[in-house]
Amino acid sequence: MEATSMQQKSFLYPPGGIMIWILITLEIITFGAAMIALGVSSRENPELFHISRLKLNTLMGTVNTVFLLTSGYFMAVAVQHVKQHMAPEAAKNILFALLGGLLFVVVKGFEYYAKIEHGYTIGYNTFFTFYWLLTLFHLIHVLVGMGILTGLYFSVRKGITETRQENTETGAAFWHMCDLIWLFLFPVLYLIF
Amino acid sequence: MKKRLNITLTWLIILTVTTAIISGFENFRLAPYLILILAAVKFNLVAFEFMELRSAHAFWKFLVIFYSLVFVGIYTIILSS
User: In this complex, is the C-beta atom of A173 within 8 Å of any C-beta atom belonging to chain B?
Assistant: First the structure.
């Protein structure tokens, strides 16, 4: 445990490993640049962005944020259980994390359906072009994350090994990255314009 | 440890609901800035508590804090222009 803690203090060993943190850094920079482009575009026609923002369902966005955060919480608990070699508890918490992700996808599905039904598709205006590109790209990350969590669930159920512990920490870091991206995506799309 | 995670989740949910409520105040001119600051707080809470960044090397802590500050800073400039 102490060795792990000492290792994590090293630049080369952030929680989950350096490769996942390189990926996280690149992803948040990419999404950040796209969100800044959204902000810059909004200055050309602030009224359009305000009216378009009001067409989004803030309640659904808020509920989805809570689902993702709660899912992230369960994943963080799962990592703690894995470190303590408590395989059944870890597997149970990964399953809860997966459920949170599933609920996010279901709510997003309802939201997309409503937008398409009202004609607010990707070509409707600049705001909705950003809305669809950013949320769909984020959704792809969530779906990939859910695939990773599914794999971790079946792996951890068999018992905890050093490799499985590392895999869980790396998978959890990817899952939390989806939270990190959404935490800025939610306010810039649903709240501030 | 679990207690710490419970407290973090509670704060994250409180801050999320708070930002959603603030966005409804049409005449509150500082609302967008406040929402972005609260989003940055949530961003750091997830990184430091859920991702255990507080036990990581200072470089990674700096990276996350720096990113959130730069993002909020750029958005503040954009919204003020």
Answer: yes
Provide φ and ψ at A123, rounded to 5°. -95, 5
Q: Which of A184, A188, A189 would best serve as a mutation to test chain B binding (most B beta carbons within 10 A)?
A: A184
Distance between alpha carbon B13 and the CA centroid of its chain, in Å? Answer: 12
Q: What is the pLDDT of residue A8?
A: 58
Asked whether A109 and A142 are in contact (CB, 8 A), the reply is no
Helical packing angle, A162-186 and A58-83, nearest 10°? 160
pLDDT of residue A140: 97
Mutation for testing the B interface, residue in A65, A96, A168, A177 having most B CBs under 10 Å = A65
Which pLDDT belongs to residue A4?
55
Q: Set out the domains of chain A in order of their start, with CATH numbers.
A: 17-191 (1.20.120.80)
* B35: contact with A, CB 8 A cutoff: yes
* ipTM value for the complex: 0.92
Sign for the pseudo-dihedral over CA of A24, A27, A31, A36: positive
Percent of chain A with pLDDT over 70: 95
Angstrom distance (rounded) from CA A64 to CA A187? 12
Residues A27-65: b if buried by 16+ CB within 10 A, e if exposed: bbeebbeebbebbebbeeeeeebeebbeebebeebbbbb
Res A1 pLDDT > 80: no
pLDDT reading at A143 higher than 90: yes
Domain spans of chain B, in order of start: 2-80
Residue B29 vs residue A134, higher pLDDT: A134
Question: Any idea what DSSP says for residue A50?
Answer: H
